[in-house]
Amino acid sequence: MRNVTKVACVGRWLFVAVTLGAVLPSAGQAQLGGLRKLKAKVEQAVGDKPAAEASPQPSSPYNENTLEITPAVAECFERALAAENAELDAFKSWASKVKTQAGYEACDGEVAMSAAARAIGAEMVAATEKGQEAMQVMKTASEKMAALTEKTCGPKPSSAELKRRDAVQAAKAKGMAVCGYTESQYNILKERVTPICKSGVLAGADGALKVPGDTNGMFYVYSAAEVAVFKARCAALMSALQKQL
């Protein structure tokens, strides 16, 4: 009801203005200008010409965590992966010398029967006979046996898994440091390689791509610039990622 009253009031003022324009011809230009202004106010009040709404702009898939893989980013990313893999290779070299559980147990049995082990046992007996505190004597003998076993058989197989986790984290930190990546940036860069490189549509792509992910309704989006980069670098990037533990 308030809007109707407002329009009616404006309409009455418009009628008065038109009437005055008719009886006062000497002020024609001024009246016309005033009428135009009044007409604009009426249209704005009634809503005949609503303001145009700006078209929503598509949001970019890239942000501080998801980096667009330009040639420069790809080059640095490859160097980061190479640094990470070099650290992992050092762990693999160490891990290759770790015996299987069965092999370690067999080696441990041989050590227990060895002359070196018998010598440690003899030392323990002699120390006890001399009146040394029994618990301390046993602790010393146990430490000597553990050192002898590790020297002969290598580390326990269970320790390899613990060291593997530490090695993976240390290697990842080494790779991230090459380009100053955050962990999120580095993880997402790695994640986006496999879907496009194994998609089967990359070779024939001309422009941007939208590649389905593992989850229903999930997609990986790649710009035209990224598609060009992956065409040139997929082989190298996939090779580097396959060396990861």
Descriptive report:
The chain is mainly alpha-helical. It is built from ten helices and two strands; from the N terminus they run H-H-H-H-H-H-H-H-H-E-E-H. It has helices at residues 2-23, 28-46, 71-95, 101-112, 115-129, 134-153, 157-179, 183-191, 193-197, 224-242, and strands at residues 209-212, 219-222. The protein has a two-stranded antiparallel ribbon with strand order 1-2. Strand 1 and strand 2 (219-222) form a beta hairpin. Helix 3 runs parallel beside helix 10 and helix 5 runs antiparallel to helix 6 (134-153). Residues 1-32 and 48-52 have low confidence and may be disordered.
In short, what is this structure?
With 245 residues, this protein is mostly helical. 69% of the residues lie in helices and 3% in strands.
String of helices and strands: HHHHHHHHHEEH
Strand content: under 5%
Question: What Rg, in angstroms, do the CA atoms define?
Answer: 40 Å
The stretches of 5 or more residues where confidence is low (pLDDT under 50) are 1-32, 48-52
What general outline do the C-alpha atoms trace? elongated
Number of helices: 10
- What would you call the quaternary organization? single chain
Mean pLDDT: 82
Alpha carbon gap, first and last residue:
73 Å
Strand order of the largest sheet: 1-2
Helix share bin = 55-70%
How many beta strands in the DSSP annotation? 2
The biggest sheet amounts to: 2 strands, antiparallel
User: What structural class do you assign from the helix and strand content?
Assistant: mainly alpha
